[in-house]
């Protein structure tokens, strides 16, 4: 079989992930959703904007040895991260669709009765702890154990790296959820049930080097001629300049003394809708002596002085740069998406409550 199992998702050699189609009607419904959103002839502005919040879709795939096994071929959202911290949060007041049986409804409500009240459910998380160089994993039972009183602390656990709270990742996550919320408040075409938000942020104190190999083959095929081929691309963005080189097949980043390397590579190298250039966008910052060194905190230097250093890098950042954290928030799981002529109030309700919880974590 191709690739390795990644929590139920298979890895394709070209860097995409393979999600096996569920039995009918769920699998065909999810495939139809992706086909509609990513139709090359699509001119619906609502669906075109929706692409920004989904993993990229590269059609369906079957292994040569089992042509009847169908997989959705999707972007691996975690691929660009060094130590990805991942959380899956189901959104909406109902985790069952309008066609669910009474038995199914009862089953779903009994699993997490609080979902109707707060509008979301933590399905699981995987958090990298800098101090131990290891991951902590929580499954769906952890999320179901959370109450109205403990959900804030339960989610904050995802943003704690063993030393401090990653306020930069929280702020960036809020910003991305707010964009998704704006889309939902402006559309009346689709209603989503049992769908999730996938959160990913960089847990390592070292920014990953962006290699051409980290751009999937499927994405490379869509890159305009010359962008990733011979010759150097040189672009200056205030505190950061990026030099792409074909030597060793990688893109090397050099960061000026005013900013930690942690923020060097925080934007996608290529997107389907804006693929005319490879850029990194970072606001120009003047923070005096706050950022005295451009070097990252190496793992071997995690000693008795690490807490104030890590707090400087991760915790006490100026508000202007919190949104620069290497964070992805994508919508996933679309086996229960249905046409509609009304706003998806349940999903909107869940997003608003999740934003409120994250803001409370950030403020406190």
From TrEMBL:
A Pfam family assignment: IPK
Molecular-function GO term, any one: ATP binding
Keywords for this protein: ATP-binding, Kinase, Nucleotide-binding, Transferase
SUPFAM superfamilies: SAICAR synthase-like (SSF56104)
Cellular component annotations (GO), alphabetically ordered: cytoplasm; nucleus
EC code: 2.7.-.-
Top-rank taxon: Eukaryota
Enzyme class of the recorded protein, top EC level: transferase
Catalytic activity: 1D-myo-inositol 1,4,5-trisphosphate + 2 ATP = 1D-myo-inositol 1,3,4,5,6-pentakisphosphate + 2 ADP + 2 H(+); 1D-myo-inositol 1,3,4,6-tetrakisphosphate + ATP = 1D-myo-inositol 1,3,4,5,6-pentakisphosphate + ADP + H(+)
GO terms of biological process kind: inositol phosphate biosynthetic process
Disordered: region residues: 1-26
Keyword Transferase listed: yes
Protein name (Swiss-Prot/TrEMBL): Kinase
Originating organism: Pavo cristatus (Indian peafowl)
């Amino acid at each position: 079989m191709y690739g390795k199992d990644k929590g139920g998702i298979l890895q394709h050699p070209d860097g995409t992930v393979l999600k096996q189609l569920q039995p009918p009607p769920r699998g065909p419904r999810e495939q139809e959703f992706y086909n509609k959103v990513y139709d090359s002839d699509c001119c619906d502005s609502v669906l075109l904007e929706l692409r920004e919040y989904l993993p990229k879709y590269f059609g369906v795939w079957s292994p040569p040895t089992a042509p009847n096994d169908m997989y959705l071929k999707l972007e691996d959202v975690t691929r660009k991260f060094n130590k990805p911290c991942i959380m899956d949060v189901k959104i909406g007041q109902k985790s069952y669709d309008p066609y669910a049986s009474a038995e199914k409804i009862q089953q779903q409500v009994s699993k997490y009765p609080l979902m109707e009240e707060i509008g979301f459910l933590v399905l699981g998380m995987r958090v990298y702890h800098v101090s131990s160089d290891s991951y902590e994993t929580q499954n769906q039972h952890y999320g179901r154990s959370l109450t109205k009183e403990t959900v804030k602390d339960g989610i904050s656990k995802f943003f704690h790296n063993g030393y401090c709270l990653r306020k930069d990742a929280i702020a960036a996550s809020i910003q991305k959820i707010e964009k998704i919320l704006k889309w939902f408040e402006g559309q009346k075409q689709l209603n989503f049930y049992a769908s999730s938000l996938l959160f990913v942020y960089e847990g390592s104190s070292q920014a990953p080097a962006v290699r051409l190999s980290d751009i999937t083959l499927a994405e490379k095929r869509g890159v305009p001629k010359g962008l990733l081929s011979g010759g150097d691309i040189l672009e200056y963005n205030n505190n950061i300049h990026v030099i792409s080189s074909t030597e060793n097949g990688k893109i090397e980043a050099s960061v000026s003394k005013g900013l930690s390397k942690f923020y060097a590579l925080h934007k996608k190298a290529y997107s389907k809708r804006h693929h005319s250039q490879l850029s990194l966008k970072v606001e120009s910052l003047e923070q005096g002596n706050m950022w005295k060194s451009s070097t990252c905190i190496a793992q071997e230097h995690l000693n008795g002085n690490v807490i104030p250093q890590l707090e400087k890098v991760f915790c006490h950042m100026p508000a202007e740069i919190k949104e620069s954290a290497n964070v992805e928030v994508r919508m996933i799981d679309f086996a229960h998406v249905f046409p509609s002529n009304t706003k998806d109030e349940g999903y909107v309700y869940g997003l608003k409550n999740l934003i409120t919880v994250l803001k409370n974590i950030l403020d406190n």
